[in-house]
Structures are given as C-alpha cells and as structure tokens.
Amino acid sequence: MATVAEQWVLVEMVQALYEAPAYHLILEGILILWIIRLLFSKTYKLQERSDLTLKEKEELIEEWQPEPLVPPVSKDHPALNYNIVSGPPSHNIVVNGKECINFASFNFLGLLDNPRLKAAALASLKKYGVGTCGPRGFYGTFDVHLDLEDRLAKFMKTEEAIIYSYGFATIASAIPAYSKRGDIVFVDKAACFAIQKGLQASRSDIKLFNHNDMDDLERLLKEQEIEDQKNPRKARVTRRFIIVEGLYMNTGTVCPLPELVKLKYKYKARIFLEESLSFGVLGEHGRGVTEHFGINIDDIDLISANMENSLASIGGFCCGRSFVIDHQRLSGQGYCFSASLPPLLAAAAIEALNIMEENPGIFAVLKEKCKRIHKALQGLQQYVNRELPDVQAGFRKGRRTRDPIANIHWIIEKAREFQKKHLFLLY
Amino acid sequence: MADPGGGAVCNGTLHNQSASDCHRGNCWKNGVVKESQQNGNSNFYKPFVESFEEAPLHVMVFTYLGYGIGTLFGYLRDFLRNSGIEKCNAAVEREEQKDFVPLYQNFENFYTRNLYMRIRDNWNRPICSAPGAVFDVMERVTDDYNWTFRFTGRIIKDVINMGSYNFLGLAAKYDESMRTVKEVLETYGLGVGSTRQEMGTLDKHKELEDLVAKFLNVEAAMVFGMGFATNSMNIPALVGKGCLILSDELNHASLVLGARLSGATIRIFKHNNMQSLEKLLRDAVIYGQPRTRRAWKKILILVEGIYSMEGSIVRLPDIVALKKKYKAYLYIDEAHSIGSVGPTGRGVVEFFGIDPRDIDVLMGTFTKSFGAAGGYLAGRKDLVDYLRTHSHSAAYATSMSPPVAEQIIRVMKLIMGLDGTTKGLQRVQQLAKNTRYFRQRLSQMGFIVYGNEESPVVPLLLYMPAKVAAFARHLLERKIGVVVVGFPATPLAEARARFCVSAAHTREMLDTVLEALDEMGDLLDVKYSRNRKSARPELYDEMSFELED
C-alpha cells in the first residue's frame, strides 16, 4: 500500500514539474544553487576577537600600577596642626597651652561643665559602667534610654522620640528610612553635611531651592505638580519631602516655618525639620523653631536634633508622631546596626532636660546676650567678610574659616583699637 | 617555646615577626634564639576549622511551609483589618494628611505587621543593670499580642547574659579600677561640643590615638565617636569614582553604606571564598573598567575580621597573598575580633601571625571588647594624616566623649599589661578557653553550629520561625538571655540563635546554659546535625569490641 501511495505522489510531482511555467523553475533553481553556496562558504567574522593568552594576562597583571591609597598631604595643612585642648572644653578653655575664651564650641546653655550633669553621669557610671555592648535590639536597651525617649517626647510635646548614639548619624539615618529611590526631596541649598549624606544614601531625586527662598521652592513645587498631572499613576506613589533646618549651620539664619507649613498643605509634601542648632536655643521654653513661630508641632512630620549642642551630651534624637517615628526602629540604619548610647551620656541628657525645664529663664538670657554680641559685632561689619544675619539666633559659625577662635581674637583686637565694648557669652 | 597561647606572659608589647625592626623600640630581645621565641609567629600550622553544615531536607521544607502559613494568615488578618472586622492596633496617619501620598507602601510593612509582630517580644528587651555576665531584665507583658508592651515593674534578676558583645567581660558595674574614668568625668565633663578639626581634639584623644597605634603595632591611628560612622564616613574619603571595591557577601551594613556613599563600583565575592575573590581580582586588573576598559585607579578589598552572623573568621593569609599579587589594598573591619581573638587579644592579624604593615587599613570598634563606644582607623602615618584632613567625620561630626576615651585607655592598658598585672591577658585566655569548651559541647550535643572553632560568636541554627520564638521565650523563663535573629538580618530560611561567649562567664554558668540548651534542643527538636559525636569517649576509645570470654 505504501509504495502505491509513494508512486502516486511521485507521479504528481513530476506532472507538476512539467506543467510549471519556465520562470518559476529557473527562479527556484537559482535559489537552490545560492543556498548550497552559502552553506559551504566560510563563516564571515565581523572583527577579529582578541582573546588574551595566558601569558598576556600575566603581563597585564604585572604591569598594572594602582594609585597610592592616599595622596600625599602637605605638612602644613591646618588640620594636621590641630589645636589640642587640654582640660575641659568649657567657657575658659586652654588651647595649645594658652588660656582663651571659648567662642567656638557649641555650648549654648553652658551646660558642659555643670556639676549636676556630672553627678547624674557619675551615678549612671556607678550603676551601668560605660558601654552598652550591643545594639538596641539585642539587650542594648537600658531603662535610661527609655526614660530619655519619654522625657524628650514630653518636652517636645510629641507622641514618641527615638535616640541615636551619634549626632551625625541621626538625620543621616532618618532620611533614607523614609525616602527611597524614586521619591522627591526638596532641600535648601545651604543644608548641612549630615543632611547631604542622608540624601545621598537615600538615592532619591533631589531638588535644591535657594536658601530660605520660599518663592523658589514654590516654583519647584509647581513644576512638580505639572509633572504629576502628566503621569498621575506615578504621582500617586512618589512621596515628597521638604527638608529644612531650624537654624542653618552654614549661614546662621532661621527658616521661615509658617510659609513652609502653608506650602506643605498646598502641595502635599511632608516636612522634616532638622533642629540641631535651634533645639534649646529658640523658643520661649527652648522647644525650637516650632515654638519660636508658634506652630502646632503635629504639622511637622519629623523633628530631628542632636544632643551635642544645647544638651551638652553626645547623641541625637528624632521626635514626632508614633506613626512616623516607629518606622525608624526597624529601618534606621544608625539605630539598628549600631550600639546604643552609653548610659552615662543618656543620664546627663536627662539631667540637662531637667535643668532646661526648671529654669526656662535661661533662654531669654541667651537671647539677650546674642542680641548684644550682634550689636557689638555690627559695628565691625566692615571687618567681617561675611554678612551677619540679623535674626536673633546669633552665634558666629565659621565653617568657611577653619579657625573661629583666631577669627574672634582678631576681631576683638580690632575692636579694642576702636574701643568698642565687648560682652562675652559667659554664663 | 613557640607556643604563644600556652600561658606565656607578654610584657605588654607584641613581639614583631621581623627582628630587624627593633629600632622602633617595641621589640624586646632576651638573649635567646629569636625565631622560635617570637609570639604571634605562626611557624606551626594552626588548623582552620570552619563548618557550615546544611540542614536535612525536611527541615527546609517545614521552614518554608511555616513561612507560607504565616503569610497566608497575614493576608487573612490584613483583610480582616481593612474591612473593619478586626480592630487595628497600628498607628495611623493624621486626619489632615490622609490625602497625602502614603508614607509607607503597604507591602513593605507586610512582614513587619504580620510575621515580626507576633514574636516581637524577643527583641528590644530592656535591661536595668550593667551588661556583664549576668544582668537584670525588666519584665514586660503584652495585653494585645505584642502591639504594645507594659512594664509590670518587676525585674528578673541574675539572668545569664549570652547576648551582649561583652567578650572580655569588661562591661561591669563601677569598681575601683574605673577610678580614672570617674576622675576624667569630673574634670572634663561629658560632651565636647565641637568637631575634631575645630575645638574638639582633647589631649585625651591624642593619648588614646597613640595608645591604639602602640596596641596594634602600627604607625598611627585615629579615633572616632561612633563605630558605624567610622566606616560610613571614611570609606568615601579613601576611594571614589573610578575605583573598585570588592566586598564580601556578608559585610556589615556600615561597610555597605560606606561603599555606596563613596561612588566607587562595587563587586561582591562569595563569603570567604578565595577563588571567587581571585577571579574578580584577575578580571578587574586585566579588563579594567567596564565599557571604557581603562585601568582602575585603585582596588580596595573590604572584609571583616569575624562576621557577626556566621561566626566565621576571614581567611587572612590567603587574602594578603592575593592582595600582594594583584596590588590591591585591604581594609579589614575588626569590630568583633579586636580584643577577642589572638593570643594577646590583638585581633585577627595576630591570630594568623601576619605583619600589621601588610594590611593597609585596620579598622575596629571599641564597643565590643572594650566596653565603651567609638571606632578607630589605623595604619601608616600618611594614611592617618590624610584621614585627619579629609575625613568627613573629622570635619563635621563631634569627637569622642572624654570619659569614654578614658575607659578605652584604661582597658587597653589592662590588655597590654601596662598596668603591671596579667589580668588582661588572663581574660583573653579565659575567653579562648570558654569559646572552645562551649563550641565543643554544642556540637557534641548535636546542634548545627556555624563558624570557626575559635570565634567567640556562636550561631546555633534553628531554621523555623516558631522555634525561634519558643527558644528565646523558654530560655528567658529559665533566666538565660539569648539573642535570636531572623530575616532580614539572615537569609529567610536560616533563622538562628547567636551566643556571645564572654571571659566573664564561669564554667558553672556555661554548664547551666548548656544543660538548658540540651533540654531545649530535645523539647523543640533542633538537634539537626548529622555529625553527632558521642559524649561518651569511652565508647570510641576502646581498642576492640570483642566479647571477653
């Protein structure tokens, strides 16, 4: 049966061959010849692939010279001939053997050598020793830490507070915990270094606005709104943050918080406020720039500050509503992966808070003294090559000059020439 | 003679391998043959025993099953909460801000809400005494399944501490030896209020830095206020764009953050795997940067001394050989190993007998063995000078607090023997003894224990999430405090309990703990190891088992 079928097919084929038109046969013949030629021709390489031989590889390894690990540093770099302070860094400070008046340390309330703080720290040292030997999650949480968090939350009138063991790490860990890749952050151009590092770690889109310029910020926010309308789906999931400082470390000015809060509700962005310098300085009771302007503290999503300035301790804290702060307990890198604050420093911070709460008059005194120094230095404006801010948050920060004490000495000498009166920030 | 660990007393200085360098003033010759007398020189071969045993298959199946069931219930509970059937205990957004873009993605918190929240009481346990060998834990109860906690006011006293990083047992209540810390506290106060480059360099810091350099036998050192910040702020100062970082798979978050912030290209090699590292090095040197094929400016290898979750010790001799061959730079983070390994406690460099000048950057923290806080970076003088000028931490972050610096000085002098006693060295040796005993007994009992035989960090594998919770809770009832770790600090299926052996633990304490662990292991059935050694040596010491007639 099979052979018959085969034959039948063969017959059909031969018949089709006779009946096909000539051009068709010729075309097919040419195609078949072309295919046969392609099949048997040599493969055609685009470029010579250069696989290195073993010998060449060894030679490359021999030849390669890396840069030195660190470039050489000149011997008279100012940071190498640093000032050594012997003794406590209080108001009368001994620098390189010379006695000076200290205008350079961040000792705003003068608590660095307060005996009550030392006593509290001593009591804590006697009970707990020095270190905590563990991060907060693994038996590094002491009752002192919980106390301090409670007290800070009560003082700032927020729901919850969280402590970090280092001031720099506070804002640098808080920002990446909330703002991730794809989120948008509006930052002031004069933001401090810790904020910059936090932003870099967060990998978000950063939009800078001119220092304290609310119109510039509004312009950026409007542009963002227009972008959003083009792509509403994406806009529904990108978070927006505005990060400002209460008192800017680089310029000494205060941020215009009421306008910021208005912008916040208009454009639906969250505000993170960094109050390292304004905590314990501004405001009637020292609660910072929110009290200074009389703004409801719940309007600010996160307030971050460090305890190294007014509280004369070490470390930092963030405070706000539990909804916001609790997230950092699992995703704040400086909190989860680092040992907790030594209890003696926490006890000193609690005592400092006690002092702040007991005499709220010191803030008025500080304000008064700042105004006086400002007035005195205004007269020397011609000698100061930076503009002095005329808000009451006056203390001269020298980030651009690395030697604030030298600067002050020079100014005081100049002023003595002109017989101006000088009043020190003594406490 | 050549046994550095056998009770030999070093007089506070490390005898260096190269006898020709004694003009540095640190080496003491005592008129006898040098080679065989030098401590730290591992002329003899020390076996490097590390094990990462795999669990039997049924364990992995049940682990994933457990997570699966937990996830299903999580979805169910989320549904119940969203539809209002169940009361939601979590904090919520403000009314005025309800139309803002949500702060957290729902999915991000799924694990936290549904799986972590169930067993949350095993972490963040507050204590109210010094974290010594025993401590006091504050009792807390929960009325609403771990959403909120309430302190009953009672204190669980004398809980054996197997969780804190207290390797040399120096974190303790105040006693007379801490007198200098008290004095420094009273003279200097607590805070510094300024950065290193401004007014923050106290004479205490200078003293400490000189001492650290002497301790580690390097040219210079620099100290910082926080260990985490030491890594994250100094790696960007050393490498930048156009450089290559080769980092171990299981490096700590601070190293990863520092590498990311630097802007260099990061390539990861398998954990402690020298073939993987060599392949990466070869490819990097031969082929250069991707796409442009230009040579890399520098190659930096980031490793840790002891890895805290695995308990493994880095293979330092191999890495040093590789680094010399391919001209790379080595950065080693000795957070856990400084003070706890090595015959005189000088870390993993001494453990292997390697010259500290072979390592480019030695980093470590003072939190673990020294009972203080802070970190250091040590190496050649030009490296430290460069860091003093260019480190972000020196320019922008506060310096270390004076009493903390004094504590470190005191402890370092103790370990080096400069206070005239051998107490420090005894602690180091006691730690080594405790470690070996503890690990040996655990593996005899049949637990799967990861890591190197000599590392004081002992992870014991539990695998299943429910067992993790039961383990920690039961042991707290028996007054033993342990640390359990799960996802995301470890891989999903490898949850573990991590013990930190301390020199302050006595043999009785270790025996109590081991007994309790034995019972726990039988109760929870976590003795998964297939290499159970019998605890009765007389059975395998027998020469013949023939019946005696």
Automatic annotation (TrEMBL), chain B:
EC number: 2.3.1.50
GO terms, biological process: ceramide biosynthetic process; sphingosine biosynthetic process
Catalytic EC class: transferase
Keyword Transmembrane helix found: yes
Pathway it works in: Sphingolipid metabolism; Lipid metabolism; sphingolipid metabolism
Cofactors named for this entry: pyridoxal 5'-phosphate
Membrane topology per record: Single-pass membrane protein
Gene3D superfamilies: Aspartate Aminotransferase, domain 1, Type I PLP-dependent aspartate aminotransferase-like (Major domain)
Keyword Transferase: yes
Compartments, record wording: Endoplasmic reticulum membrane
Domain named Aminotransferase class I/classII large: residues: 157-517
Xref: PROSITE patterns: AA_TRANSFER_CLASS_2 (PS00599)
GO molecular function per UniProt: pyridoxal phosphate binding; serine C-palmitoyltransferase activity
GO CC annotation: endoplasmic reticulum membrane; serine palmitoyltransferase complex
Keywords per UniProt: Acyltransferase, Endoplasmic reticulum, Lipid metabolism, Membrane, Pyridoxal phosphate, Sphingolipid metabolism, Transferase, Transmembrane, Transmembrane helix
Family label: Belongs to the class-II pyridoxal-phosphate-dependent aminotransferase family.
Full protein name: serine C-palmitoyltransferase
Originating species: Ovis aries (Sheep)
Organism lineage string: Eukaryota, Metazoa, Chordata, Craniata, Vertebrata
